[in-house]
Amino acid sequence: MQxxxxxxxKGCLQxxxxxxxxxxxxxxxxxxxxPRPIGSLLAVSSSGRFYGSVSGxxxxxxxxxxxxxxxxxxxxxxxxxxxxxxxxxxxLPCGGALELVAEPLTQITxxxxxxxxxxxxxxxxxxxxxxxGHVTLSSWQQQDAAxxxxxxxxxxxxxxxxxxxxxxxxxxxxxxxxxxxxxxxxVSDPRPDYRKNWPVQNVPLLEGFxxxxxxxxxxxxxxxxxxxxxxxxxxxxxxxxxxxxxxFYIGALGSKANNQQRRQRLMEHFAFTQAQVDRLxxxxxxxxxxxxxxxxxLSILAEITAIKNGxxxxxxxxxxxxxxxxxxxxxx
Length: 332
Fold this sequence. Notes:
Blueprint: H1 5-17, E1 22-31, E2 41-45, E3 50-52, H2 57-69, E4 76-80, H3 84-90, E5 97-105, H4 108-119, E6 124-129, E7 135-139, E8 146-147, E9 151-156, E10 161-165, H5 169-180, E11 184-188, H6 192-196, E12 205-206, H7 210-216, E13 223-227, H8 232-242, E14 249-252, H9 256-270, H10 274-277, E15 280-281, H11 293-308
Parallel strand pairs: 10-11, 10-13, 11-12, 13-14, 14-15
Antiparallel strand pairs: 1-2, 1-5, 2-3, 4-5, 6-7, 6-9, 8-9
Helix pairs in contact: 1-4, 5-11, 7-8
C-alpha cells in the first residue's frame, strides 16, 4: 500500500510493538524518470507486512521478498536501474534509476517521538549516519532531503489537510476522494438538515461554526480550505477566517459572477484588500466541464493537487518554503 509518511511510521511503530523486525527504506536519489520522489518511504516487517511505496512493481516485490526473509542489520545503500538489464527486470521507465537507503529500526521511542511531532504539525529533520546508524531529530531550518557521503537527511512534515465547508453532495465526494489522495479531511456545516444527512461515516462533522473552528486551528501551508455549502451565510463566514490564514489553497464554489460579488462583499464590508481576495480560487477547481457533484469534486482536487505538486502556481501568501512534495515542510 502507498501511504503518507505518518501512515508508514505508524505501521513501523505497530510492528515494533509486536516484536517484529522492521526495515525502513527511503528514496535518496533518482535519475531520469522515477515513480516516487526523493524522501518517499517503504517499511517492511519480518512478517511480510509493508507500508508505503518507493517505486512500485518489481522493485518493491524484490525489496519485500528480500527484507522479509533477511532483515538488514546495518544501514545499507541500494541501487536499482544502473544497467539496462536491471531497468528491464524491475520495470523502471525511460532510463530511470534510483538509490535507496535501507535501515533497521530497533527502538520504539524515536519512532513514537517522530509521530508525535508530525501529529502536532511540527516539521522535523531526521538525520541517519550511514556509518553508525545513529539517528538524530532536529527542527526544520528550510533544508531539503539530501544524501551525502556520510549521512542521509530526510524531512518529515505534517500530513496534507483539507478543510471542507459544506456537507452536501459536493462536500461528500470531496471528502471521499481526498481521503484516497492521503489528505486528512475535516468537514464543517452548521445547517441541521445537512448534518443529519451526512453519509460519510469515517469523516464525522465537526461541532461548531466554520469560522470558529478555523480560528481555533493552526492553519499551516499544508492546509487547503474549500467552501462548497453554496450558501453565502456559511461560505463567507468561513472565508473571513480562511483569507487571514496561511492555507496554501482557498477555494469557493460558485459562478464567476457569484465569486466576483463575493470578493466585492469581502472588500466593502469586511475591509479585505485586493491582494487578500485575489488569493481566492473562485470559481473553484480546474475547468474540466464538470456539472455533477462528483465531477466538481474531481476538478477541485485536481487543482489542489496541481498546486501542491508545483504544477500550478499558488495564490497563497508569499512564502520561502516549498510545498511541492510529501516531504515538503510547512510554516509552523
